[in-house]
């Protein structure tokens, strides 16, 4: 039997971030991941970081590349039928966001963990959690054909929506809340320079589109599509034609397209599991909640979960107090529900719903017009987008 203080299930950004924070604090931990490291790095995800998330990464000591390569954005562009309105975060709330791909965050955390000599086990198969309400919980798994058992004080479930962690909590002890949206996002990654300085969120009669970037030479662009659509139906030419039709003629005229290097469709939904702890098991990131990408909150919520759990574990091991651990779920969920609300609002505001009647269309357009013309409404949007305080 192996022994550690904290067993971390999942080597996505949440698990790796927690592992690095704990390692730096002298708290022993082991990260278990069922996929290969290459597979984890191949997942194309978010790219907008709140200042709080950057601060957590700085505490973890993994900002060397971020500080030199990331882009700082002081606002976003909201567009309706080609009419553009800038939401100036800097002047409204005095803060900015950082554009740096989740893949790069994961890569930095992987390299930092490897350099530190901290234990990560990839391709850990048949992971199972045992005794999570007992004093010494255990994790069993198979690696390279051999069975292993890991004893620990606590388990951090950072293994996403489909992972084993949340499923290990009895259904009688867990409540879930879900809202599915009747469309998805078709996303394309391409190595072409962006024709925009900041993200453009575009609402049009043809549907929603988002123009974003990962660097000065790489774009990540999206269009809203029906849930039944498949990637194979969308050639690069068809995608770029539709994207340009929605993003606005001025941007389309100066944007030079290129071949896609990745293309995928993601359904949109909101999901929250309560509580985020059970016995000695604590959930973080997508294991506990999913939000539509419209509000750029998925990775940032994972970072805040991790920070709260890190603070609670630090207090336990250094001061012997369980106050932070006992209050972890309540503290995390307050921020989760605020972000779920904002992501739902942004999604409802900017997307064309297939069953939308004329009344709803007018209400949505009227609300968007209010955001365009009201400093108070823009301040609320900016405050939520840049991230509520940790």
Essential attributes:
8-stranded mixed sheet; 21 strands; 390 residues; globular; single chain; FAD/NAD(P)-binding domain; D-Amino Acid Oxidase, Chain A, domain 2; alpha/beta
Shape: globular
Question: What class do helices, strands and sheet pairing give?
Answer: alpha/beta
* DSSP, total strands: 21
Helicity, as a percent range? 25-40%
Largest sheet, spatial ordering of strands:
7-6-15-16-17-14-18-21
The biggest beta sheet, please?
8 strands, mixed
Poorly predicted runs are none
Give the CATH H-level superfamily of the largest domain: FAD/NAD(P)-binding domain
| Count of all domains | 2
Describe this structure in words.
The chain is of the alpha/beta class and 390 residues long. It contains 14 helices and 21 strands. The strands form 4 sheets. Strands 7-6-15-16-17-14-18-21 form an 8-stranded mixed β-sheet. The longest helix is centred in the C-terminal third of the chain and has 23 residues, at 328-350. The two termini are 38 Å apart.
How do the helices and strands line up, and which of them pair or pack?
Layout: E1 2-3, E2 6-9, H1 13-24, E3 29-33, H2 37-42, E4 48-49, H3 51-60, H4 64-69, E5 71-73, E6 75-80, E7 83-88, H5 89-93, E8 97-99, H6 102-116, E9 119-122, E10 125-130, E11 138-143, E12 146-151, E13 154-157, H7 164-167, E14 175-190, E15 200-203, E16 209-215, E17 218-225, H8 236-247, H9 249-254, E18 260-274, E19 277-278, E20 281-283, E21 289-290, H10 298-319, H11 323-326, H12 328-350, H13 358-373, H14 375-386
Parallel strand pairs: 1-12, 2-3, 2-13, 3-9, 6-15, 13-20
Antiparallel strand pairs: 4-8, 5-8, 6-7, 10-11, 11-12, 14-17, 14-18, 15-16, 16-17, 18-21, 19-20
